[in-house]
Write a structure and sequence with these properties.
Blueprint (H helix, E strand, L loop, with lengths): L4 E5 L6 E5 H13 L5 H10 L4 E7 L4 E7 L3 E6 L5 H8 L19 H28 L5 E7 L1 H14 L11 E7 L7 H13 L3 E7 L17 E5 L5 E3 L3 H4 L15 H10 L28
Parallel strand pairs: 5-6, 6-7, 7-8, 8-9
Antiparallel strand pairs: 1-2, 3-4, 4-5, 9-10
Length: 304
């Protein structure tokens, strides 16, 4: 095992997981911090983190912000989460509507709001994002890893978007280079059938699909059929204890969704585990919490 991989020990002694500490922190910088900033602030922030090629995408109708950033080796795609009351209607509330109009390209059904956000106005937002990814993929001659990382509603939209892209490789040639999706406190995007097909997709294409969140995050209190994350879950409680692939009972609690942005609850705990295991070299996260109600976030090369 590479020396930058930390061992995650679960409260269940039969479960362990390995994650690449440096990658989690690197992509966490992009998603939890950059995507919440204005375009000039985000570009300056990302350039200081080594990303020289940056696409800052906005969509006024859905109040969306997406960052596509590249450094030659990696392309990071981060979708901002809930950030306004407008999001509550256009995406959030309708994210729980599952009907015959919400068939996913890979099978199963997803929240109407999530699919609609991507496909509104002849797939305008999806076209903007995929065009930016393809441009950087071409620039890097197809040699860069493509990684999705988002928080909250951004995580749900990213998961739906990943499924739509992987189902159409001819339409999205860069899809073969997608390696990772990391979500933080993501809202579950679809029903049980979608969850099953999504897992099959990740295994077939060897995509690392991981979720890291706090135990008592309110994103777990969701009505059927949105009860489970589609990504492999790592839950960290207030005492720093970890549960891998928790049951529904193990997830339930009363807490704050915004706690996911608190580094001491997630990223600082990951750093603490890395320090305990003699792993150093991570990039310092900025002081304070520049995040509103929601954000995007992600990481790459998370290994089983």
């Amino acid at each position: 095992m590479e020396n930058n991989h930390i061992i995650i020990k679960s409260t269940d002694p039969n479960k362990t997981d390995n994650i690449n500490f440096l990658r989690v922190e690197e992509f966490g910088n992009v998603a939890l911090h950059a995507v919440q900033r204005t375009e000039p602030e985000a570009i300056e922030f990302l350039k200081n983190k080594g990303y020289k090629d940056i696409k800052y995408i906005t969509d006024a109708e859905t109040d969306s912000v997406v960052i596509v950033a590249g450094n030659g080796k990696d392309i990071v795609v981060s979708v901002r989460g809930k950030d306004s009351q407008k999001d509550d209607y256009t995406v959030g509330i309708r994210g729980y509507i599952v009907d015959t109009k919400t068939d996913s390209a890979i099978g199963g059904r997803v929240g109407f709001g999530y699919l609609d956000a991507l496909n509104k106005n002849n797939k305008q937002l999806l076209a903007k994002i995929s065009s930016a990814i393809q441009e950087l993929d071409n620039q890097y001659e197809g040699k860069a890893n493509i990684n999705f990382a988002s928080h909250s509603m951004g995580g749900a939209i990213s998961s739906v978007m990943l499924a739509e892209i992987k189902a159409r490789p001819d339409e999205y040639p860069f899809s073969k280079n997608i390696k990772t999706i990391l979500t933080f406190a993501s809202l579950p995007p679809g029903n049980d059938e979608f969850r099953k097909k999504y897992k099959e997709m990740c295994e077939k294409h060897q995509i690392e699909c991981v979720e890291i969140t706090n135990k008592n995050d309110l994103s777990f209190v969701t009505p059927p059929p949105h009860r489970y994350s589609v990504n492999r879950q790592i839950i960290i409680n207030e005492n720093g204890k970890v549960t891998i692939d928790p049951s529904l009972i193990e997830k339930i609690g009363i807490g704050s969704h915004s706690d996911a942005h608190n580094e001491k609850n997630i990223l600082d705990r990951i750093r603490q585990l890395a320090t305990e295991q003699g792993i150093t070299g991570g990039k310092d996260m900025p002081d304070g919490n520049p995040v509103g109600n929601g954000s995007g976030n992600r990481a790459n090369n998370i290994q089983r």
